Amino acid sequence: MPAVTEAPRRLLQDCCSVLDHQTPGGLCGCCWALRPRYKRLVDNIFPEDPEEGLVKANMEKLTFFALSAPEKLDRIAAYLSERLTRELNRHRYGYVCIAMEAMEQLLLACHCQSINLLVESFLSTLRLLLEADKPHLHILATNSFVKFANIEEDTPSYHRSYDFFVSRFSEMCHSDHEDLDTRNKIRVSGIRGLQGVVRKTVDDELQVNIWEPRHMDGLFSAFPSLFSGSPAEQTEVCFRELLCRAAYGHINNAIKPVLMHLDSHSLWQGRGFAVQCFQIIMYSIQSQHSHLVIQQLLGHLDANSRSPASVRAGIVEVLSEAAVIEATGSVGPTVLEVFNTLLRQLRQSVDYQLTGYYDNAGKHKTSSIEEKKLQDAVIKTIGSFANTLPIYQRSEVMLFIMGKIPVPGIYPALGSPNSGSNLLTALPSSFLEPLLSFTLMEDPEIRLLVLSILTLLIDRRHNASRLYLKFKIKHDVFVFMQHAQRLYRHVYLASREENSGRSHYQALFTLLAVLSVELANEEVVVDLIRLILALQEMTLSNQECLSVFNRCGIHALCAAFLNLLSQLGPPPTLHQHITQVIESREKDAPHLLPEVVFCDKPRLPEGELKVDEALLFIQSKICEALAGSSYSTHCERFNTPYTPQLTGTQTRVTSHPLFSRHVHFSRSVRGIWGDFRDG
Predict the structure, then answer these.
(1) What angle do CA 226, 229, 233 make, to 5 degrees?
(2) What is the rounded distance in angstroms from the CA atom of residue 113 to the CA atom of residue 530?
(3) pTM, full prediction
(4) Is residue 538 a part of any domain in this protein?
């Protein structure tokens, strides 16, 4: 009886075995022997127990057969795919893994010219696994795809498409699986899959469509969202590899999805994330393409002109960091356009700050604090870009900036500058005249600002910070010689301003000190002494409407500068005269010395200021002190008292709204010219 009931069950098993293409052990075994050899070889690689893994000896036989008869590769691959599909439908995942391993080994063993016979079935099998709802199958398929991507092919692939894989791998990058470990594994697989797609397509002329926007949106939008999450390190490695393979014509398509991602997720605010993304981009792309990234950012900044200040500041901050990374001089062919865009943003921000709204309709409010942060970021970025340029281009940029600034009431130029100066292109009259005109503006803060700028431009050897320490005296007779008279004139006129304070006189002293140290020439020293004597005479004149503080401040300025100048080269007899006058002031008129006038609570005389001759620096004694020295050849110039050469009518320069935020211009100048003085 048991033998009777066992027969139907054994018959059913044999039939299933035939359908599964396994070797039957009973009466239907003859059917298996009639099957094609390649199918029998494929069937033999599967063990009875899937945990035993691929039967290596039989796999070697299958590989040898495939190499010996490459025309059967397509049928072998199709049958393997069919067998894998059947096992997958029956949830026999062990056999699925064995089938994939067999396909991988065949791919690696086949010659390049015959690999296309396998690929179609291989890719269709991977699609099947990626469409399944099992994470481990997604990971299995991705690993196989990566191995396939690393195979170099010599023959073109005419009918191959990777659109599905780009889409699926991008989805895997954003996996939200409930298990954290599984989620990370899926994301890593998605990233590696995208990396494999690019490796496989970037050098294939028949697959250039990978760089089209529809693919780039999927590829590059997957990465930024993972930098702040997990697995960030793997994401960065893959992101860099994708970018380093981008050619000139592909940069824009690669950057646009990143910009869109940062916009849609409001990631410009704050410093970290957007900067990190573009640091990776700038370090990864080929250096000759970096200016394309800059242009993309500038265009995006313009497109966000009516966005909140925090968004604009975030884009500008990224621009600043990109400029630091960018290779020197590679801003691109439109250098001035970079600065034009940034200056336009600066002016626009000032307008927004004044109106309180960052749109013309007056619907979206902005705060002064937010706009100031943006302005500071713009100024920093201007400096960062300028420092990547050679010296001659920095001069052009400075002229360009000055051309964007309204400068009413400019004094006419004083004749033609001296020829032969090695800094003629660095500080031409078209730059210096507008700058000097601001020393006469009504706003005392702007005047102070311009004095500091002039000092910065002249002080190429950083002597301003060493005024009370050790000076670096260099005899560079060509420095600013063509502009000396202009500088003297504006120092004289700036000293007459009634609303000047302690900081103005200190700035004037610093400017004069730097001039004397940088020039250190006999003719210049004599002219500076003439200027000081003219300032001293101005304080004694009743025609000048100066307060007691202003008169004492100018006297203190003259004393401080002459004391310094007398120690920089002139004969000791000059220093003796200067010292005698200073000692007399210490005894009888301390209010004429800087330590008294420029303190927090200056002690000034009441009523009209009167100064005895013993407290003044005398021209005749100065000439006597210089006699017999190398300075004596220029002493005849003392016979002509210094008078500022003015042509035309003097007009006071009024403030422009842009300069009510005076620190903007100061910092932009410092950013551009901070390194110029060392050049």
Answers:
(1) 70
(2) 90
(3) 0.65
(4) yes
